[in-house]
Design brief:
By secondary structure, the chain is of the alpha/beta class. Helix content is 32%, strand content 13%. The relative contact order is 0.15.
Length: 237
């Protein structure tokens, strides 16, 4: 299996770094092909702007989405975007390794999504979205760390249900929207506070890496389950 790891942490000695390193070593030892996009080490540009394109279609009014569509047709994305898109084409399974910051991904990773998950590449009029998105046929998994304990992220917890209130916009609104099939996330709760827990999480993550193809997918509805008003049909509610 071809596995791409998108890694977003600025400190190599962090627990996120340890999880990334473990994934590389374990998956390689199991015979998988592994590539890593270390966004901080790459100094990946997070801000979407005109420099993302070799040519601009409309010099009078810059609309980023339209320029993305044009670049997808003319193969005129900037080199850093094209490299990441080629990695996605190569991958069978994508792991996103990051710390949960402000209930979302770090800015550098959000910028990666903004720039790489481009119109005309992962979605668009001629492609579709969700189960018909440009990256269909591939799976993806979030692997993240938190600063608050697990009980804070329950349905009645102070921080809200982590699956429905926090990770949903990433799993559904980014990964599934682009055609990826999200699987259940790996979450390490407050690993910075306890060495024993860190070792336990590493052991649990190692076990998960050994069964990548067996991790349950998150059961999102396909586009066929919605009507013309984007409402879930009655029979699927």
């Amino acid at each position: 299996m071809n596995v791409l790891i998108i890694y977003a942490h600025l400190e190599p000695k962090s627990f996120n770094g340890a999880l990334k390193d473990l994934a590389v070593s374990e998956l390689t030892s199991l015979g998988h092909q592994v590539k890593v996009s270390d966004l901080y080490a790459m100094n990946f540009k997070a801000v979407a702007d005109q420099d993302d394109f070799d040519t601009i279609q409309d010099e009078n009014f810059f609309k980023y989405q339209i320029e993305q569509g044009n670049a997808a047709k003319t193969n005129s994305f900037s080199d850093d975007i094209q490299v990441e898109q080629e990695k996605l084409r190569w991958a069978d399974f994508v792991i996103f390794q990051f710390p949960l910051w402000w209930y979302s991904v770090p800015a550098i990773l959000k910028g990666w999504f903004d720039r790489v998950f481009a119109s005309g590449f992962v979605y668009g009029k001629d492609i579709g979205r969700y189960d018909k998105g440009g990256l269909k046929g591939r799976k993806a998994m979030l692997s993240t760390t938190t600063g608050s304990p697990e009980y804070a992220y329950t349905p009645y917890g102070m921080d809200g249900d982590i699956h429905e209130k926090i990770l949903y916009h990433i799993n559904h609104g980014m990964l599934y929207f682009a055609g990826l099939e999200p699987v259940e996330p790996f979450i390490a709760w407050t690993p910075a506070r306890d060495e024993e827990n860190r070792q336990r999480y590493l052991s649990e993550y190692r076990s998960r890496l050994h069964r990548l193809s067996e991790i349950p997918s998150i059961p999102y509805h396909p586009t066929s389950h919605y009507d013309n008003n984007h409402q879930l049909k009655v029979e699927y509610r």
